[in-house]
Amino acid sequence: MAVNKPLVSVLMTAFNREKYLQSAVESLLKSTYYNWELIILDDCSTDSTFSLAQHLAAKDERIQVYRNSKNLGQFKNRNKIVDYAQGKYIKYLDSDDLIYPYGLEQLVYYMEQFPNAGYGFCSIKQDPNRIYPLLLAPSESYEEHFIKKNRIFDKAPLSSIIKKEVILRYGGFPHEAVSGDFAMWCLLAQTENVVLMPQGIVWYRTHEGQEMQKTRDSTIVEFEYFKVAEYFLSDVNCPLDNIANEIALKENRKTQKKYIFWKLRQQGLKVAWDLIKMKNDDFHLNGISHD
């Protein structure tokens, strides 16, 4: 059955994912929620990803496949793919990950309970005192992450669902780096309410070819998360009150110093010196867009 205005636009960016693409798409095809469209945007893959995507699209009219004229990179591609979306909600499903059959149904169900929410996170660790779903205001979400240290912003796009109008209002992901998703959540949380949802909705694959390996393998990339946090905590739009903001900033800068000292002992003076320079330099988001 053709669906002209799908409620959920499932967005799948892909670069050299021939090994995992089919299983990712098949996980969506098993969905108990039918009002969706799947958009696959190939970022100039050099393997058979694009042809495989076309083959899968030929079997289901809800699947659309596009290819960039040049390689954009992870977050520029995530922004570009929104141009093709028609749904009320944006649901990123990466081409190497999976969504459980009931996943979309649960995500939409939770979001629809809170019309004033701009986005939501699943895969949240159980709260011992409250049952999900929970709605957090901007100041509460910043407090949850930076003061209570429940790290709700440490989520990949896979664990999010975003209203299309919200992602368009902010222009998409604001930073082309491994920390680009973290920067996005810090940005949205300045003004948007968020719904927290339980675990068991999506499945995140770990393998050597994924972007997050850069965090595990690079000290500089890992340190940039501290700088992104400091950037948003220092921003005039930070939703924390003055006392909480001061506490969070102080803790962030203390953590930066501890990290540098740890890397000095672990990797030596050169690495520590590079981190010191990064700590002292002004940090700016690179304000990505797409052509």
Supply the key terms.
alpha/beta; Spore Coat Polysaccharide Biosynthesis Protein SpsA, Chain A; two-stranded antiparallel sheet; 11 helices; globular
Short description:
This protein is an alpha/beta fold.
Termini, distance in Å?
34 Å
- CATH level 3 topology of the largest domain: Spore Coat Polysaccharide Biosynthesis Protein SpsA, Chain A
Could you report the average pLDDT, rounded to the nearest whole number?
A: 93
CATH architecture of the largest domain: Alpha-Beta Complex
Radius of gyration: 19 Å
Give the SSE order as H and E letters.
Answer: EHEHEHEEHEEHEHHEEHHHH
| Count of spatially separate domains | 2
Describe the overall structure.
With 291 residues, the protein is α/β, with parallel strands linked by helices. It has helices at 21-29, 49-57, 74-81, 103-112, 138-147, 164-170, 180-188, 213-217, 219-234, 242-267, 269-280, and strands at residues 8-14, 36-42, 63-67, 89-92, 98-99, 117-121, 134-136, 160-163, 193-196, 202-203. The chain has two domains: 8-203, Spore Coat Polysaccharide Biosynthesis Protein SpsA, Chain A (Alpha-Beta Complex); 213-280. Helices cover 42% and strands 15% of the residues. It has an eight-stranded mixed β-sheet. Strands 5-10 form a two-stranded antiparallel ribbon. Helix 10 (242-267) runs antiparallel to helix 11. The two termini are 34 Å apart.
